[in-house]
Inverse folding.
């Protein structure tokens, strides 16, 4: 592993055979998550591929010339030519390996894979998921002097990290950016001593034996588990949705609204998320058409008032989408008027879907007791039907799903588990 400056780029990268190049920054959680993966893979592949790091903030001109605009960004070079994918953000180990393997002959890749030694790490508690509930639980557990590891396939924060503004979290007089609220929680957890294993692939989870395998080679043995895997946007399940996901259909305004500057978009939904995210999208889009199945919006009154006073937003009520198509660069939606049963079509530059969430339970749905909607059932201490396993946040069965209720869940679970060690 070698760190270079822009002045060394030609000699160390362009004049070398095979190179993996990491542009990193300081005070960058995704960079911190990448660092141990990049270093460990450097030890595995280092005899064949040169691993190099560049501090992006001090080498901006080079970064810009290579099209690098965020940290971390990993590029791959073969004999001075860029090859493979450009990896950015929450970079997973499997994606690094995929690109590294593509640089080498199959026989050499096979030998490297054979040299990988499985590792085992032990903790008192493993927290699966880094949303507000999981972060809160990990803070309390670590402060109780229990060795705690937080595991997340993404970066910490959950849905909060992609919420543009939060106006009702206690302690903030002015609305706080969701990413920053997540960042504050993560930093507090790190300071408390929580170990982070994020942007990883969770290979398997055994809730009875309390064993979790990540990235196919690392086994985490623990005495207790907190499930905080949250929920994901619920799809509509209509023709065209899967085909055009990420190609005209989005479920995240903070991720994609910026791509619709001065363009027209359609929003599906009428609850808090749909209404509040429409307000955010209106900072970019020239026109928003919101389609909702009921005769009135179901969001909170303050959010409704803002939306109804926004001249960029129009409503189509008592209607449901039936099909998505793409015609040229335009998205075409077919929707049904629920009063007349007539079908209508409307085109736009993009579509955002906000129609609720679904619990992330694929890894353990067959062993946990669930409610009729598929959420995990817990008791008042957040305990599940499996001894030593608690669940918190949006993945559990409860009436209200809010950041504050997730934080409360995490607090209760952590205190209950801490006492179980006495």
């Amino acid at each position: 592993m070698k760190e270079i400056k822009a002045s060394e780029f030609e000699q160390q990268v362009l004049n070398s055979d095979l190179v993996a190049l990491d542009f990193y920054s300081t005070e960058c959680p995704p960079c911190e998550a990448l660092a141990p993966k990049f270093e460990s893979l450097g030890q595995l592949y280092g005899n064949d591929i040169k691993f190099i790091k560049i501090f992006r903030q001090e080498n901006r001109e080079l970064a810009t010339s290579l099209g690098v605009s965020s940290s971390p960004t990993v590029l791959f070079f073969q004999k001075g030519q860029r090859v493979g994918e450009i990896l950015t953000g929450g970079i997973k180990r499997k994606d690094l390996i995929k690109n590294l393997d593509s640089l080498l002959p199959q026989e050499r890749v096979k030998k490297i894979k054979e040299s990988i030694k499985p590792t085992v790490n032990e903790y008192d508690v493993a927290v699966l998921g880094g949303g507000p509930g999981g972060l809160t639980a990990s803070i309390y557990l670590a402060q109780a002097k229990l060795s705690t590891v937080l595991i997340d396939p993404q970066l910490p924060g959950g849905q909060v990290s992609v919420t543009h503004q939060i106006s009702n979290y206690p302690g903030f007089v002015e609305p706080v950016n969701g990413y920053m609220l997540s960042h504050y929680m993560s930093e507090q957890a790190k300071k408390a001593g929580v170990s982070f294993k994020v942007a990883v692939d969770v290979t398997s989870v055994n809730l009875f034996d309390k064993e979790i395998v990540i990235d196919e080679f690392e086994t985490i043995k623990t005495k207790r588990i907190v499930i905080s895997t949250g929920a994901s946007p619920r799809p509509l399940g209509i023709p065209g949705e899967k085909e055009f996901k990420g190609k005209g259909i989005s479920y995240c305004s903070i991720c994609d609204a910026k791509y619709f500057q001065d363009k027209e978009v359609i929003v599906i939904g009428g609850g808090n998320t749909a209404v509040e995210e429409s307000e955010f999208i209106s900072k970019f889009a020239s026109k928003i058409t919101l389609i909702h199945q009921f005769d009135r919006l179901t969001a909170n009154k303050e959010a409704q008032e803002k939306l109804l006073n926004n001249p960029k937003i129009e409503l189509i009520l008592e209607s449901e989408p039936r099909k998505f198509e793409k015609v040229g660069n335009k998205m075409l939606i077919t929707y049904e008027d629920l009063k007349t049963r007539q079908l209508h079509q409307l085109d736009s530059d993009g579509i955002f879907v906000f129609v609720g969430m679904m619990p992330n339970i694929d890894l353990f749905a067959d062993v946990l007791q669930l409610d009729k909607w598929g959420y995990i059932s817990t008791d008042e201490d957040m305990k599940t039907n499996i001894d030593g396993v608690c669940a918190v946040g949006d993945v559990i069965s409860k009436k209200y799903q809010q950041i504050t209720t997730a934080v409360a869940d995490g607090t209760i679970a952590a205190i209950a588990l801490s006492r179980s060690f006495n």
In short: The longest helix spans residues 403-420. The two ends are 45 Å apart (CA to CA).
